[in-house]
Amino acid sequence: MTEEREAITVLHRIVSNFKEHPSKTAYSWLDKNCEVESSITYQELDVATQDIAIELLKTTSESAHSGKTVVLCYTPGLEFINAFLGCLRAGLIPGKPTSPLYLVMWSVA
User: Which residue segment(s) compose the domain that 82 sits in?
Assistant: First the structure.
């Protein structure tokens, strides 16, 4: 007998945690010494990603609403995670620039 399972994505799991554990830390960003530099709770993550998704949907054309790629130009950090998840919530595909020039500028910043 095979058991059917519902596919659970990262986004589904996080949305579930928004509801079940709103005050629990969702992510922490560590500095070079592995000390917590900044953190975000599931409730804060929910608000941030929902706001980003709404703004993306307002600023993109109707034809770009589903399955289109959005290039994220962020330095590493919680803001990148928020933007990445905001894209997923909007039905868009987040991507990172692969231009060598961008990568050099990013490592210098």
Answer: 10-108
Number of domains in the chain: 1
64 lies in a domain? yes
The strand pairing partners of 40, in sequence order, are: 27
Tokens of 16: 């579930």
Alpha helices in the chain (DSSP H): 10-20, 42-59, 78-89, 100-108
1 inside domain: no
pTM (whole model) above 0.70: yes
Per-residue pLDDT reduced to its tens digit, 48-73: 999 999 998 888 666 555 678 888 88
The per-residue pLDDT for 106 is 43
Biggest alpha carbon–alpha carbon distance for the chain: 56
Report the CATH number at residue 47: 3.40.50.980
Neighbours of 83 (CB within 10 A): 19
